[in-house]
Design a protein that fits this description.
The protein is built from 13 helices and no strands. It is mostly helical. It folds into 2 domains: 2-121 and 174-194, Four Helix Bundle (Hemerythrin (Met), subunit A), CATH 1.20.120; 202-283, Orthogonal Bundle (Arc Repressor Mutant, subunit A), CATH 1.10.10.10. The protein starts with a helix and ends with a helix.
């Protein structure tokens, strides 16, 4: 087992060296390529947009390096998200590609983590999913208060799980490798330092925030106009952090699971129809 670890590290190093060969696009070049893809389905343009942003996928994947997954697997899933974003990107919206793509990249990586851990029978209940994604945040907060020490009882109480579950999750979330490792001992230069910073600027973030805020207001108005059961399903199943199951909602109203599913479909259909003009306006 110990002999296999350098192979993983070497493969990652080789991959990072390869993607650094692709040029980082200027905003003007990116827009030109995106127009070629959007208007003329130019596959060469799509390839250039993808390869120029592979380094950003690595930066996003690095955020999830402590979930016990191979870094290359996380990067691969993030790359799929990037390709989906490039395919659906509309350059006429006036935002940078990466501002849009980051949501796709994170979604594919998170789905991969959840599906992989579910196969291991971990993170399958609401409490375990909360523990899975909140562990590091809670651990950091408690270490700050205690001067660097872990406090299992406090973490268990905060996350509403048993101490044994906290301890087990802590072991499983120990990452297998880190981009924070020094390239050469004593020089202070890490693998991550070699990646270009392509974070969206403040203007792009503000524009995206304003669009999202407007969309949320429209969603709230549409939901307010739904029937009682439809509003309950949207609030407690679709938009909730810990959504109820079909059976839980069925038991609440004293109806069948199939009827709840029909209510959910009807509610979503109404929401999509009402929001279609708003979304279309944002894309123009």
């Amino acid at each position: 087992m110990h002999a296999a670890l350098p192979v993983v590290s070497d493969n990652l190093s080789i991959y990072l060296a390869e993607i650094r060969k692709f040029p980082v696009l200027t905003e003007q070049d990116e827009h030109h390529l995106a127009l070629r893809l959007y208007d003329h389905q130019d596959l060469d343009a799509a390839q250039a947009l993808i390869t120029s942003n592979l380094r950003f996928v690595v930066k996003v994947a690095n955020e999830y390096r402590n979930y016990g997954m191979r870094m290359l697997d996380l990067i691969q899933e993030g790359n799929i998200g990037l390709m989906m974003a490039v395919k659906k990107f509309n350059p006429h919206r006036g935002v940078r590609l990466i501002s849009y793509a980051v949501w796709w990249i994170r979604a594919y990586i998170q789905n991969y983590i959840i599906s992989t851990w579910s196969l291991l029978k971990i993170g399958t209940t609401q409490a375990q999913r909360k523990l899975f994604f909140k562990f590091k945040q809670t651990q950091h907060a408690i270490r700050t208060m205690t001067g660097g020490d872990d406090d299992l009882p406090a973490m268990a109480q905060s996350l509403e799980v048993d101490e044994a579950e906290v301890a087990e999750m802590g072991v499983r979330l120990q990452g297998e490798l880190s981009l924070d490792a020094e390239l050469r001992t004593g020089e202070g230069l890490t693998v991550l330092d070699g990646l270009a910073d392509q974070q969206p600027n403040q203007e792009e973030r503000l524009a995206e925030y304003q669009e999202q805020a407007q969309l949320r207001r429209h969603v709230a108005a549409v939901v307010a106009g739904l029937g009682e059961k439809e509003r309950f399903v949207v609030d407690r199943r679709i938009t909730a952090d810990e959504p109820l199951t079909l059976q839980e909602i069925a038991d609440h109203f004293g109806i069948s699971r199939e009827r709840v599913r029909q209510i959910e479909e009807n509610a979503l259909r109404k929401v999509r129809a009402a929001l279609a003009p708003v979304v279309k306006a944002q894309l123009i």
